[in-house]
Design brief:
Helix content: 10-25%
Order of helices and strands: HEEEEEEEHEH
Structural class: alpha+beta
Number of domains: 1
Radius of gyration: 15 Å
Bound molecules: zinc ion
Number of helices: 3
Strand order of the largest sheet: 1-2-3-6-7
Distance between the termini: 37 Å
CATH superfamily: Peptide deformylase
Largest sheet: 5 strands, antiparallel
CATH class: Alpha Beta
Number of strands: 8
Shape: globular
């Protein structure tokens, strides 16, 4: 297990469409998943996709934050999504700030409009299929990470560039 460098915007790995994981690969990707989790924790992120540590595979990890308060809990459960699919995404949307470990190392935040409720389906790291309904921050994380495996960055979706923020100002706003 190892903390990896997070691949930064401009690297074409982040722009490739990632490949489906073959179920026979499951034993081989366990250490990749461990590296993703360790890297996510080390970089203080709430989600991380495989391309962000250099593997164009359809895998992402996310903290199971059912509310924003859980975001900084050390023991929050971590979900692994292999070959994820967005089963449904609400027409209702919400605009909120996002950052990304691959964009200015997560020190840059911008507003992105996303579906407020999402149902995702994926395989867990044992290869067992699961379905997870989500709203709030978790829905946002799932959609953001799912974009990564399609080669999309959140900066592609920022509509209002006048409202971008540094991490410092973003935290001031959240805590203020
Ligand atoms: Zn990201």
């Amino acid at each position: 297990m190892a903390v990896k460098n997070v691949v930064q915007a401009g690297n074409e790995i982040l722009r490739n469409k990632s490949s489906l994981v073959d179920l026979n690969q499951l034993p081989d990707i366990q250490s990749l998943i461990d590296d993703m989790i360790e890297t996510m924790e080390a970089a203080k992120l709430v989600g991380l996709a495989a391309p962000q540590i250099g593997e164009n595979l359809r895998i992402f990890v996310a903290k199971d934050v059912r509310s924003r308060d859980e975001k900084n809990k050390p023991d929050v459960n971590i979900l692994t999504f292999i070959n994820p699919e967005i089963v449904s995404a609400s027409k209702e949307t919400v605009v909120d700030y996002e950052g990304c470990g691959s964009v200015a190392n997560g020190n840059f935040f911008g507003q992105v409009k996303r579906s407020s409720e999402v149902i995702a389906m994926a395989l867990d790291r044992e290869g067992k299929k699961f379905e997870i309904p989500s709203g709030g921050l978790l829905a946002r994380i799932i959609l953001h990470e799912n974009d990564h495996i399609e080669g999309i960055l959140f900066t592609d979706k920022i509509e209002d560039w006048e409202k971008i923020m540094s991490r410092e100002e973003y935290l001031k706003m959240r805590e203020g």
